[in-house]
Amino acid sequence: MNVALPTVAALTPGEFEVRIIDENVEEIDFDIPYDIAGITGFVTQFFRAQKLAEEFSRRGTLVVCGGPCVSLCPERWRPFADVLIIGEAERIWPQFLNDYLHTRHKNEYRETERFDLAESLIPDYGGFSKSARKKYMMGLVQASRGCPYKCEFCSVGAYVGRKMQYKPVDRIVREVEEPKKIGINFVIIADDNLSADREKAKAILTALRDWNSRQRSPTMFITQLSIDVAKDDEFLEIAAEAGMTAVQIGIESPCIESLRETGKCQNIASDLIQDIRRFQEYGITVISTCIVGFDHDGLSIFKDQLDFHMRSAVPNVQIYPLQAMDATALKRRIVRENRYLDWEEQYRSNPEHLHNLSTFTMIPKQMSLEQLRAGTY
């Protein structure tokens, strides 16, 4: 279940009637008149967002776009958005609505400071239709924002910073209760690195363990964290007791030089296979995300990745070609080296589905794009 728009809905004053439409589960009825259409989505949904914006604009609806993709590269969205919300929305969304009510809204609202998550509100799911709510199998809760690491390809630091912020523990538990009310017993804790502050993460997991122990049907959790937590037996034990059935970890590569190249130093400190097995010993499944196409990757990397994951007993491997995404250090370097390929230009010159195996944003050093595509397959 989407949590971004319910978070925005909670920030919206009562004089507005809110309708939340997630195209994964429900179609948009353009015949319903709206004063404001707020649009957000992943980078792969950019062109769909543009079509929606144009459709609403033709009907005289004010189009407001926000979220990470907008914040990291607002110039892509300006041609079709009436208003841009750049940065975390908690303070600037209410500012925009107040200006709108007084007919003085601007075309851009930019957050310049980090929002204190202690002041966050419980997401308001009331804008979903009853039929839409019944279609969800998983809930989403965000417990923290930020990541202290400096991986070259990652845009998290540019958007929410490297200093970790966590919501109050009791607030997190209350948010977990929301999906439970509509019968959802599987919750993704949608953090970029839940374990970055080990002690705060343990406090959250302890509270979830205690809450879960009181439920007739326990909730299962999945989250994203860093491999270095594998050495903390207390953390793993609490996580397992809390109902953490799986964790997503950026393994990235078995090639040490590629890990050094991208700044993934936490993955070099010990044996990755042994670390993965520590999670497995506690009954926690590891979901591995890995990347091919680093500058140090030759054509042998594809077999190396396969061999590594066969030895690790990881059942779910998500493999991606390296992408130089907007606002990342990698993109800045690749642009300097004249190896950047803009995904928006590629799409417009050859319209097709935007996905990881049809769109590339950089020219690799040790292979052709076709070799990278074929090797990833």
Overall description:
There is one protein chain. The chain has 16 helices and 12 strands. With 377 residues, the protein is an alpha/beta fold. The chain folds into 2 domains: 4-110, 3-Layer(aba) Sandwich (Rossmann fold); 137-323, Alpha-Beta Barrel (TIM Barrel), CATH 3.20.20.70. α2 links the parallel β1 and β2 (62-66).
Helix content: 25-40%
- What CATH first level of the largest domain would be assigned? Alpha Beta
Distance between the termini: 30 Å
| Second CATH tier, the architecture of the largest domain | Alpha-Beta Barrel
The total number of structural domains is 2
CATH homolog superfamily of the largest domain? Aldolase class I
Extract low-pLDDT stretches: none
For the biggest sheet, the summary is: 6 strands, parallel
Strand order across the largest sheet: 5-8-9-10-11-12
Please state the average pLDDT score. 94
Rg value = 21 Å
Strand residues, percent: 5-15%
How many beta strands in the DSSP annotation? 12
Oligomer: single chain
Overall structural class, as computed from helix and strand content, comes to alpha/beta
Named CATH topology of the largest domain: TIM Barrel
String of helices and strands? HEHEHHEHEHEEHEHEHEHEHHEHEHHH
